[in-house]
Each structure stands twice: as structure tokens, then as C-alpha cells.
Write a structure and sequence with these properties.
The chain is of the alpha/beta class. The protein is built from 16 helices and 9 strands. The strands form 2 sheets. Strands 1-2-3-5-4-6-7 form a 7-stranded mixed sheet, sandwiched between helices. A two-stranded parallel sheet has the order 8-9. Helix 4 packs across helix 5 and helix 6 packs across helix 7.
């Protein structure tokens, strides 16, 4: 895209760019059952999964050391309220063992942040799961911009923070399985385990209390992760869940919003093309890109989502609307999905269809044209069907990226009371 692009398109593109001690024995013991479950559901051999020490910490690399004033300035530049900033922070890139979408052994990286509090004080641990990122270097442990706002905010409020890069982002191998809820959850859960080990190495005590938040894609991940951590075998005590603007309902809200104008065109082509390419690696959506994408986009679209292209590359190579991107047949098929497409969407719905026993607050914005507020209402309705009241907290008539800027400080304050 060029500088002559209309202002609303530039802002949408900018929004897309914007779009934390276990001993080795304990790690091994905790790893077995979740890894086996992941492998069994994916068709992999349980014996192989049992050999994966999920969450085993492989490497710790310091990446930042900020004073309280530096954290405040960093957040203020992004127009984020700094009232909860009480401490400076130290941040580290963790490399750890986890499993892939089919239960196979792999590694991932993530950002672990510690507040500069007195070292004898036990710390709660916040899991902050990030939103959609197309280039691997946008991930929190590598990129020094948007991906660190939430982690620094929560650490400066006095908690340790585990911010996973997810698979295929940061310094992890392979390509990112975008919107694959299961692997995002395992990578996030294993980041929590690795973070406890990293804290132990640094002589910092963690209380075992865990707080979950996340934005956009990460909001959906946070809700699914909460369900995983609610089990009796979890080594963590889940205390509160506060996702922001998550796409909890692809089938009932997000995809229909592509057709009725509630999702803006630029965000629509970005999310949808990323989703289809990534999910086709896991589900049989199309045999050849030309079945889904019009020429000339079919010949270039899969290369755009290899983790090495940024959003400018993506937008420059794609058309301006979803209808121009998809073949007429696939455009209609998306309205009434079947087969692998329906399976991909179904696998990513249902993150809210369970009964939490901790408080949940759902943050969203009525002005969001990336992830319409109806997603949060669907999530609240699913929770209500299980007898759980989760308020939907409207952040106002603001776009997607501003929803998290407004919500995050409120969440940080709420977490300090839990």
C-alpha cells in the first residue's frame, strides 16, 4: 500500500500491526497427561507424547531492563493509563519444550517479565496472550513494541507475566498455526510451566496463583486456556479471567460480520486469508489455492503467510475486499461451510462453552470493526447457559486496537484485588 491510501485504510493497517519453580522431575510428571491427550486427539502415538517434557525450560535470555519511569513512558507513548505502574521490570526470552498441533515434540519461545519488587515477596503470574501477528518478529519475546505493552503493564503492577509467542512465532521453528486453539493453549500452558522454572532460577517465589488475559486472538486463547487450567490436575490456582475483544464465535458472529459490513474490508481480507492458509495445513479446506482464491492472489497467498512477511507485504499483495479475494464459489461456501472448512471453524468455537469457577469479565468495544462486540455477547451467553454471569464491559465507540488500550489498565487494577 502507498502513502496515498485513504486515512481509514491506513489506520486499519496500523491496527493490524499493533494486532512467567518447577524442578525437572515435576515438569516431567506434569507433562505426561496433557501431552498424551493432545497426541491422542490429533492421532499421534501417546508413547511419543509421553517423552515430551512439556514446559521444560531450555534457555533464558535477558531482553530488557526498565526502570519504573521507563515503563511509564513506554506505556504513555501508546496512550495507556499508567496509574498502576509501581515498579520497574526485567524481561527475558524463554525457550521451552512443547507440542505441535498433532502432538509432535517442538519448541516455542515467549516473554517472561518480572517486576522489580522485593525478592522475598511471592508473585502471582499473569498469562497475557497476544493478538494476531503475521511476522514472527512481531512476537513479544522479539518485538519491542505493541507485544510488550500488556506484559510490562501487568509486571509494573506487581505480578510476574508469561507472554507466549505461540508456535512458529518469535524464535520458534516452523510456521504459525494461526487460530489453532489447541496448540495455542498448549504453548501458553507450557509457557506458564517454563516461567515457573525461570522464576526459580532467579530466586523469585511464585504463589501459584494465575490470572489470564489476552487480546483479540489472545482473548479467545485466554478463555480456552482457562478451561484447561480449571482441571483438578492443574499445578496452578486460577484466580480470574479477563479477555479483551476475542473472536469467540467464528460461525455465529465473526464470519457473518464479513458479509454484513460489521468487519471492515482490510481487516476482513487480512484475517480471512491468514485463517484459510493456516487452517488448510490442518484441515482439508482446499487442495489448490485457486479453489478458494481468485487469480492472481492464489499464486502468492500461501507465501505471504510464512512468518517472514510483514503486514505491509500482505496488504500490498491482496485486493481491497473479501469478495475480490475469494472465488465466487468459495465466497458462497464460506456463508454455509461444510467439510474441512466447517471443521476448522468448529474447532475454534466453544472456548466459552463451559463453567468457570472463578470470576470472568469480558471486555469489548461497540466501535470494533475487526472483532465485533457480538463475539463477547456470544461468549457471555455460552457462560450463562452454564449458570455463570460474565459481564460484557463496553470500552466505547473505539476501534479494535483502542479497546485493549482502554481495557488493559482496568484489568491490571482488577487483578491486584484478586
Amino acid at each position: 500500500m502507498t502513502e496515498s491510501m485513504p486515512g481509514h485504510a491506513r489506520s486499519a493497517r496500523s491496527a493490524r500491526r499493533g494486532g512467567a519453580a518447577l524442578a525437572a522431575l515435576l515438569l516431567a510428571g506434569l507433562a505426561g497427561a496433557p501431552a498424551v491427550q493432545a497426541a491422542q486427539s490429533a492421532g499421534a502415538r501417546p508413547e511419543a507424547a509421553q517423552r515430551v517434557e512439556r514446559g521444560a525450560l531450555l534457555k533464558v535470555a535477558p531482553v530488557a531492563d526498565l526502570s519504573r519511569a521507563e515503563v511509564a513512558a513506554f506505556l504513555a507513548e501508546a496512550e495507556i493509563d499508567t496509574v498502576t505502574v509501581r515498579y520497574g521490570v526485567k524481561a527475558y526470552r524463554l525457550t521451552y519444550r512443547t507440542v505441535g498441533p498433532r502432538g509432535q515434540p517442538t519448541t516455542a519461545t515467549g516473554l517472561f517479565v518480572l517486576p522489580k519488587t522485593p525478592e522475598g515477596r511471592g508473585l502471582g503470574l499473569v498469562s497475557d496472550t497476544h493478538g494476531t501477528m503475521v511476522h514472527r518478529d512481531y512476537a513479544p519475546s522479539v518485538g519491542e513494541d505493541f507485544g510488550r505493552l500488556g506484559p510490562y503493564l501487568h509486571a509494573a503492577a506487581g505480578k510476574a507475566v508469561a507472554a507466549p509467542d505461540y508456535l512458529g512465532l518469535g524464535k520458534g521453528p516452523g510456521v504459525h498455526p494461526y487460530m489453532d486453539t489447541r496448540s495455542a493453549v498448549t504453548a501458553s500452558e507450557d509457557m506458564l510451566l517454563a516461567s515457573r522454572a525461570a522464576a526459580d532460577r532467579r530466586g523469585r517465589a511464585l504463589t501459584g496463583d494465575v490470572y489470564l488475559t489476552g487480546f483479540s486472538q489472545g482473548g479467545q486463547v485466554a478463555m480456552a486456556l482457562a478451561r484447561e487450567l480449571s482441571g483438578e490436575r492443574s499445578p496452578f490456582r486460577l484466580r480470574a479471567v479477563a479477555p479483551v475483544s476475542g473472536p469467540y464465535d467464528l460461525s455465529g458472529e465473526e464470519v457473518p460480520a464479513l458479509y454484513d459490513g460489521r468487519v471492515n474490508d482490510l481487516s476482513g481480507i487480512f484475517y480471512l486469508s491468514y485463517f484459510l492458509v493456516a487452517q488448510n495445513r490442518l484441515h482439508p479446506i482446499y487442495e489448490d489455492p485457486s479453489e478458494a482464491f481468485r487469480a492472481p492472489y492464489a499464486d502468492r497467498i500461501e507465501k505471504l503467510f510464512d512468518g517472514n512477511h510483514d503486514e505491509d507485504d500482505v496488504f500490498a499483495a491482496l485486493p481491497g475486499t473479501v469478495k475480490q479475494l475469494l472465488t465466487p464459489a468459495f465466497y458462497e461456501r464460506l456463508k454455509h461451510p461444510t467439510g474441512g472448512l466447517k471443521g476448522a471453524m468448529k474447532a475454534n468455537d466453544g472456548a466459552c462453552d463451559w463453567k468457570p469457577d472463578v470470576p470472568v469479565r469480558l471486555y469489548a468495544a461497540r466501535g470494533d470493526t475487526d472483532v465485533p462486540m457480538g463475539n463477547a455477547r456470544s461468549c457471555a451467553a455460552d457462560l450463562a447457559s452454564h449458570g455463570v454471569r460474565a459481564p460484557v464491559l463496553d470500552q466505547g465507540d473505539v476501534p479494535h486496537m483502542e479497546s485493549v488500550g482502554k481495557a488493559a489498565p482496568k484489568i491490571a487494577r482488577w487483578f491486584t484485588t484478586r
